[in-house]
Design brief:
SBP_2_dom, alpha/beta, 331 residues, 11 helices, Substrate-binding domain-containing protein
């Protein structure tokens, strides 16, 4: 009998202002689920916390084997603490509760299978370092476009940015702007503010959608070529940017691999994992990016990344790209 897994995707199933990141997470998870013989049911909250609450409560009522959730703004934790625990095991993806919140959930009776998140502190730092490397001008004003004030991924990316920006004596962070991960919000913010800072040289962004909004505003103002713009996600809009880091859309598949290992009682070294999955977008990832929206990496055998494999592969971008290249070249 197949393992029953419900994933509450906080994003949209189709085009939206925050970009296609959550769609990519779903497509890759769908391919992984087929390889792992997991019955995966994906439900979309459309960035609506009221709908998300309804979806979580409905899923708990159905009692699947596992419920995968994304604890943005601690919304999931609040919902769960107000609800009754049952035999369903919880798995947190990309944003997990704090250690104190996890203990409160356990005390409430919830079974927590584990979590996997990306190292957002490192990517915030790496993005800023790469933007400095690609820029010819390190004197002037820097803007930061942030997702929100409380989601761990947003907070950690900002911390990474500041760890580099605060050491730049001639580059000053003049504006930290919360654009709610949205392209149109970022567009209007930058359109209104960029003209006030004639020495603006860089815009660091916590995701590609906001970075693309900033680039669009700068283009309208006729100053795009003077300013380095960087983001995170590897969205299609990344082609409009000077630099984009990504790779973490694959962690939904990693969550299913970890669940597979748990179900089959295979060795799983860490219940809660933080993976440095990020890299800057370049030519070696073009094939990967081409396949994600079209077939969700069906050419990759995700069983090779489980502990059931004779020589399990580490879940890294290089190994996934290599597996994709081997399979597609043999077809």
């Amino acid at each position: 009998m197949k393992t029953q897994v419900i994933f509450i995707n906080p994003g949209y199933a189709d085009t939206n202002p925050t970009g296609p990141f959550w769609q990519s997470v779903s497509t890759v998870m769908t391919s992984a689920a087929l390889d792992l013989s997991i019955n995966l049911d994906i439900r979309y909250a459309n960035r609506d916390h009221i709908l998300m609450k309804q979806l979580v409560l409905q899923a708990l009522n159905e009692q699947p084997d596992y419920l995968i959730v994304v604890d943005e703004k601690s919304v999931i934790t609040k919902i769960l603490l107000q609800s009754k625990a049952n035999k369903t095991q919880l798995y947190f993806l990309l944003n997990r509760p704090s250690s104190i919140e996890l203990e409160r959930l356990r005390s409430k009776g919830y079974q927590i299978a584990g979590s996997v998140v990306a190292d957002n502190l490192k990517v915030g730092k790496a993005l800023m370092e790469e933007m400095l490397r690609r820029s010819q001008i390190h004197n002037g004003t820097l803007f930061a476009l942030l997702g929100d004030e409380v989601t761990p991924s947003s907070v950690d990316r900002e911390r990474g940015l500041l760890s580099v920006a605060n050491k730049q004596y001639n580059l000053k962070l003049r504006e930290k702007l919360y654009a709610n991960w949205s392209e149109p919000e970022a567009y209007h913010l930058i359109l209104g503010l960029a003209q006030r800072y004639p020495d603006l040289v860089m815009i660091w962004s916590a995701n590609d959608a906001m970075a693309a909004g900033a680039a669009r505003a700068l283009t309208k103002l006729g100053i795009r070529d003077k300013i380095v713009v960087g983001g995170i996600n590897w969205d299609p809009q990344a082609q409009l940017l000077d630099v984009s880091f990504g790779g973490h859309m694959l962690l939904g598949a990693k969550s299913l691999i970890n669940i597979f290992n748990l179900v089959h009682e295979l060795h799983e070294p860490n219940t809660h994992q933080t993976l440095n999955i990020f890299d800057a977008r370049d030519e070696k990832y073009l094939e990967l990016l081409k396949h994600i929206p079209t077939d969700g990496l069906k050419a990759v055998d995700f069983l090779k990344f489980t502990e059931s494999a004779s020589s399990p592969l580490s879940f890294t971008l290089s190994n996934i790209v290599q597996e994709l290249s081997l399979r597609t070249s043999n077809d």
